[in-house]
Design a protein that fits this description.
Heat Shock Protein 90, about 25% strand, DNA mismatch repair protein S5 domain-containing protein, Ribosomal Protein S5, domain 2, 2 domains, about 30% helix, globular, about 350 residues, binds magnesium ion, single chain, alpha+beta, binds adenosine-5'-diphosphate
């Protein structure tokens, strides 16, 4: 009797491959904002302004005052795997820029309409050009421009119906974007950030370049947070166990919150580290009677060969060498600071 024929294996169309890949890099509006801001930071901007319409589904516009993009580079700007930041695989080990894959802008053109306006130093005018599916739609048009680059992402996920539907039902992407900008703003304190809804006169995040971390935290998270922070530092320069240098601020026993705020940068990359967050929460729960959740800002510097930045396309998770040792060290430093502040407070209350 006839056996069932196996299904034929076919090669996917390039356009299908690109759209699937793009959906992984740009998972939601906030992922596009993160990529654009990182590009602006890589371009050495000192001012980055974000405008959002309809939670980012209608419009994400990021304007910076960075070095701009050369006219000759515009034709390949949004092709996949075109970058000014990486050339050899080995360079990944020492790379300082946020980007390196040359995939972000390309991805956006597969799931949205992308328009770039840019001017390079010394030019009398800039250029504006739109992209779709990786390619330039027409020759760049000369236009008036201020220093830097402005990128507009319109109609995000216009060609991904399911993604668009699920995002329309959750109205919280604007707050995710504000949260993201807040995190960048307290780390990159030499850069001024703003984020507003399209048409709004008031910005929801607004910072000016400063030299004081605490001032930046105050202007983003408010006086009541900044007032209750303590400086924290930890280092370990023993190369046989781990090499790291941590600086930051953690909330004291006077700070009260139901949710943890953990802002973590490792080698200037905004990352998540669930193990570290848990470890710090445990110290707070054990030390403070009212079980308040902490506010934590930490910047950790590690030798670049101890960090693998290449484990996920969104670059959100990093993997560290000697993670347990580092977490333990930080945990005991947090405990020390917190116990001290708690004892001072108890002592004051008894007076
Ligand atoms: P990557 O950042 O990984 O290189 P992207 O797709 O994000 O890839 O960007 C591609 C290239 O476009 C970058 O390498 C950079 O040269 C240029 N670029 C993107 N955004 C900006 C910007 N805001 N200012 C200057 N150059 C930019
Ligand atoms: Mg990039």
């Amino acid at each position: 009797e006839a056996q069932k024929e196996p299904p034929k294996i076919r090669r996917l169309d390039e356009s299908v491959i690109n759209r699937i890949a793009a959906g992984e890099v740009i998972q939601r509006p906030v992922s596009a904002v993160k990529e654009l801001i990182e590009n602006s930071l890589d371009a050495r901007s000192t001012s980055i302004n974000v405008v959002i319409k309809d939670g980012g589904l209608k419009l994400i516009q990021v304007s910076d005052d960075g070095h701009g993009i050369r006219y000759e580079d515009l034709p390949i700007l949004c092709e996949r795997h075109t970058t000014s930041k990486l050339s050899k695989f080995e360079d990944l080990q020492s790379i300082k820029s946020m980007g390196f894959r040359g995939e972000a802008l390309a991805s956006m053109t597969y799931v949205a309409h992308v328009t770039v306006t840019t001017i390079t130093p010394g030019q009398l005018h800039g250029y504006r050009v739109s992209y779709r599916d990786g390619v330039m739609e027409q020759e760049p048009k000369p236009c008036a421009a201020v220093k830097g680059t402005q990128i507009a992402i319109e109609n995000l996920f216009y060609n991904m119906t399911a993604r668009k539907k699920t995002l329309q039902n959750s109205a919280d992407d604007y707050s995710k974007i504000v949260d993201l900008l807040s995190r960048f703003a307290i780390h990159h304190i030499n850069v001024g950030f703003s984020c507003r809804k399209h048409g709004a006169t008031r910005a929801d995040v607004h910072t000016v370049p400063t030299s004081s971390r605490l001032d930046a935290i105050r202007s983003v998270y408010g006086v009541s947070v900044a007032r209750n922070l303590m400086k924290i530092e930890a280092t370990d320069d023993d190369p046989t166990s781990s090499v790291f240098d941590m600086k930051g601020f953690i909330s004291s026993s006077n700070y009260v919150a139901k949710k943890t705020t953990m802002v973590l940068f490792i080698n200037d990359r905004l990352v998540e580290c669930t193990a570290m967050k848990r470890a710090i929460e445990i110290v707070y729960a054990a030390t403070l009677p009212q079980a308040s959740k902490p506010f934590v800002y930490m910047s950790i510097e590690l030798p670049s060969e101890h960090v693998d930045v290449n484990i996920h396309p969104t670059k959100r998770e990093v993997s560290l060498l000697n993670q347990e040792v580092i977490i333990e060290k930080i945990q005991s430093e947090v405990e020390l600071q917190l116990t001290n502040s708690n004892e001072t407070r108890t002592f004051k209350e008894q007076l």
